[in-house]
Specification:
The complex is a heterodimer of chains A (74) and B (700).
Chain A (H helix, E strand, L loop, with lengths): L1 H9 L4 E2 H8 L3 H13 L3 E4 L17 H4 L1 E4 L1
Antiparallel strand pairs in A: 1-3, 2-3
Chain B lengths: L17 E4 L8 E7 L5 H9 L16 E7 L2 E7 L16 H7 L4 E7 L3 H12 L5 E6 L1 H6 L2 E3 L1 H8 L3 E3 L4 H12 L13 H10 L6 H8 L7 H16 L4 H20 E3 L6 H9 L4 H41 L4 H19 L2 H17 L1 H8 L1 H6 L7 H6 L4 H7 L6 H10 L9 H11 L4 H27 L18 H35 L8 H13 L7 H7 L8 H11 L10 H24 L11 H7 L4 H13 L4 H11 L1 H25 L2
Parallel strand pairs in B: 2-4, 2-5, 5-6, 6-8
Antiparallel strand pairs in B: 1-3, 3-4, 7-9
Classes of the chains: A alpha+beta (74), B alpha/beta (700).
């Protein structure tokens, strides 16, 4: 819960996990779990392309989720 | 055989102190549970108080399970429980999930909340949660000097007055801070913080209170963070419905109220000062440079092995002298031939030769301990982030790989820091390819015998090869296992200069644990080899030789025609370092006619040898390896005539990669089951054979 408010405040504009981790100085692993928890509760959503979002794509293997997948406050 | 790195049971303060791992409540007179965010320094604080050797490292996620150390403080036996780092009591990961149950398993324990002074507001949110458990508590402010460097001054007294629980600032030299913490523990009290929750939330929590253990549990049940109290669930559902109707989201309302309170508390307790330039940022500008960084990484690895060789070689020679003197003393005694043969062959030559390489391990553990605790290993992981992602692994997967340099067993345990089981399995299966400390003495011996002028280069090359095979294996397993892409890059902690006492204590604990855990198997296996060498068949050869000669044709394509070399690979499957003991027995053995030596003459020789080792160590450090950095022994001389250089290289590659040791196999079985353990045996042996064959065939 400690991170929830900070993450929600930071997601006023879309951001990747990489960007959020650097801005909040939080380990990416923790941040990713926090985002998934907030997503389950319906507070945030994923945007744009990424291996977990796209369908079939020839370039999918080159996609870096944390670098390309953007998150936004729902 | 247990692991030399995590088996840090010993302490510097006598038999009263000990460290252990587990979640059972202890029977100690007093228990302190240390709770805090990741990488805040909880384990280091426990080590400073108890003189224990819990695993520490300058990165988040060092502690992945509950560990404890016991000590005596002012006449009371105190158990210090080290909990994994957590941002909140309701965890989002398997490590965080153990924090609350561990606190509830110690209902009488004092909570010591270790707070990161550089992220005060965030850490105080956890502090506020902890106060709501209604338990006696102390707040320990850590990293105060780093906060000062960032321009943040702290006023613990203000924070103490606002929180209502003792607050102490720990200086970087934690041994002094430990005293302050002990003083504060005597003033500890349970004071739930006053957090301005909305009135509707307060009322709902009050109605839930009779069904749960504390205010925290009431709020967590209300916000559906905790759902393990059946009686409370129904009440909570009704309260949530009422709050929903009023347009209040309990999760957000509680989180925002705590966050606001924490920010206000932090604001009141801090003074903004002029920000000093962060030295970590200056260093990182160079060390994390996309071109200079990897170059510095390789140079650092080479320097680590160069120093390991330069500093430890005089002591290897000294241990060789100890063996000679001991053999001389045995020769001077009137003993039955079989006993004399066992003492001089199995014990002095076999076991003694393995032990003589302990200085190599100690120096390596000192250097690794420094790199871990200074925050440099975290940079290695950061630099490797791109490479890890290219093979579909999270950046922090490189950490178990680096830890593998010390020992594969804790590295397999450290894979728990990865989120996905598939990632954990891939990394764990790749780890046995990376050279551990047990293989290092064998490489040192072989390199000294065959390529003395390039020993450090060859050993560095073997480590690089190990990493390359591990990474290639992880990539291969990705295709085979079809695992999804993992997440979790390595974050960068600030650099910290680890106290020399900490680094030396960790190195000594690891070396001692290595000797304790490996000593038994080495003695047993070397004794069995000695026995098999003593049993003579009708054709005049020993049983061991007969077995080794039978297997030798299998290894002929690798250039390993000598039965003594093939024989060394058999017991080394148990523990890699045993290869040295086997070679010492078969190449030198007890057949040598050692001149008897008087007791005083032996002592005199040892005294002279000790002084020479000390002098050569200083020379090698001063002259940057200028001192005698070549291992000089009868064994190296005889080894050098037994194989070609190509064969020696193939032997080292095979030893690097073939079947993992017993302890590693046990760790793999425990973590992933017997099927994957069997797979590892077949996979590693196949890879080892193919690559060793390739090296032998291609070596110029």
């Amino acid at each position: 819960m400690a991170l929830s408010v900070e993450v929600l405040q930071a997601l006023a504009a879309p951001a990747t996990v990489d960007e959020l981790a650097r801005r909040l100085e939080v380990p990416e692993a923790h941040l990713h779990r926090e985002l998934e928890r907030l997503e389950r509760r319906g507070y945030v959503r994923r945007l744009a392309c990424g291996p977990n979002v796209c369908g079939w794509c020839a370039l999918k293997a080159t996609c870096d989720t944390n670098a390309t997948e953007r998150w936004l406050r729902a | 055989m247990s692991c030399p790195r995590c088996d840090g049971g010993g302490t510097s303060e006598g038999a009263a102190n000990r460290a252990s791992v587990g979640v059972e409540p202890t029977d100690a007179a007093t228990t302190w549970c240390l709770v805090g965010t990741p990488n805040v320094g909880k384990s280091s604080l426990i080590n400073a108080i108890a003189g224990s050797q819990l695993q520490v490292g300058n990165w988040s996620g060092t502690t992945v399970e509950v560990a404890s150390a016991t000590t005596r403080i002012r006449g009371t036996r105190v158990t210090l429980v080290d909990l994994p780092g957590a941002y909140a009591l309701a965890g989002t990961s398997s490590e965080e999930d153990v924090v609350l149950p561990a606190l509830m398993a110690h209902p009488e324990a004092l909570i010591v909340n270790v707070v990161d002074a550089t992220h005060l507001a965030r850490d105080l949110t956890l502090t506020l949660e902890l106060t709501e458990l209604g338990r006696p508590m102390v707040v320990a402010l850590n990293l105060v000097e780093q906060a000062a460097e960032r321009g943040v001054g702290l006023e613990p007294a203000v924070l103490e007055a606002a929180l209502g629980v003792p607050v102490v600032a720990l200086p970087d030299h934690r041994r002094h801070g430990a005293g302050r913490l002990v003083d504060a523990s005597e003033r500890a009290r349970a004071t739930p913080a006053t957090i301005p929750y909305p009135e509707a939330i307060r009322d709902a929590a009050a109605r839930l209170a009779p069904y749960v253990a504390s205010r925290w549990h009431a709020l967590a049940t209300l916000s559906a963070e905790v759902t393990d109290a059946p009686a409370a669930r129904a009440v909570a559902a009704t309260e949530r419905a009422t709050l929903d109707a009023a347009g209040i989201d309990p999760f957000l309302a509680i989180a925002e109220a705590r966050h606001r309170a924490a920010v206000e508390l932090a604001g009141g307790a801090t003074l903004e000062r002029a920000r000093r330039a962060d030295p970590s940022e200056r260093v990182d500008r160079w060390l994390l440079h996309p071109v200079l960084g990897p170059l510095a990484l390789v140079a650092g690895l080479a320097l680590t092995f160069h120093l390991t060789f330069a500093v430890s070689t005089p002591w290897i020679d000294f241990f060789g002298l100890v063996q000679e003197v001991a053999a001389g003393w045995v020769a001077a005694m009137t003993l039955p031939p079989l006993i004399a043969s066992f003492l001089s062959g199995a014990l002095i030559e076999g076991v003694g030769t393995v032990v003589s390489f302990v200085p190599v391990l100690f120096v390596l553990f000192v250097l690794l301990g420094f790199l871990e605790n200074a925050g440099i290993l975290a940079r290695v992981a950061y630099l490797a982030d791109g490479l890890m992602r290219a093979i579909g692994l999270p950046g922090r997967a490189v950490l178990p790989m680096v830890l593998s340099i010390g020992c594969t067993v804790p590295a397999i345990q450290a894979t728990r820091m990865l989120e996905e089981r598939g990632d954990r399995l891939r990394v764990a299966l790749a780890l046995p390819s990376i050279s551990c400390s047990a293989r290092l003495p064998v490489f040192v011996l072989m390199a000294a015998a065959f390529v003395p002028a390039y020993a450090a280069v060859v050993v560095t090359g073997l480590y690089v090869l190990g990493f390359a095979v591990a990474i290639a294996s992880a990539l291969l397993f990705r295709r085979v296992l079809r695992t999804p892409e993992g997440s979790g890059a390595m974050e960068l902690p600030s650099y910290r200069w680890p106290p020399a006492s900490l680094v030396l204590r960790l190195a000594w604990a690891r070396t001692r644990a290595f000797l304790q855990s490996a000593g038994g198997p080495i003695l047993l296996v070397v004794s069995v080899i000695w026995l098999l060498l003593e049993v003579t068949l009708p054709n005049g050869t020993s049983l061991f030789e007969a077995v080794a000669r039978t297997l030798a044709p299998l290894f002929a394509p690798l250039g390993l025609g000598d039965w003594r070399i093939v024989g060394a690979l058999i017991p080394a499957a148990v523990a890699k370092e045993v290869a040295i003991g086997s070679m010492a027995l078969t190449f030198v053995g007890s057949g040598e006619a050692t001149a008897p030596l008087g007791f005083l003459a032996g002592l005199g020789a040892l005294g002279v040898g000790l002084l020479e080792a000390a002098r050569d160590t200083l020379t090698s450090l001063w002259g940057f390896g200028g001192g005698g950095d070549e291992v000089d022994s009868v064994l190296t001389a005889r080894l050098s005539g037994s194989l070609t250089t190509a064969g020696a290289m193939a032997f080292m590659v095979f030893l690097l990669l073939y079947v993992p040791c017993i302890a590693t196999l046990a760790a793999l079985r425990n973590a992933f089951g017997a099927r994957w353990m069997a797979f590892s045996i077949v996979y590693q042996t196949t890879i080892a054979y193919l690559l060793a064959w390739g090296v032998y065939a291609l070596w110029p």
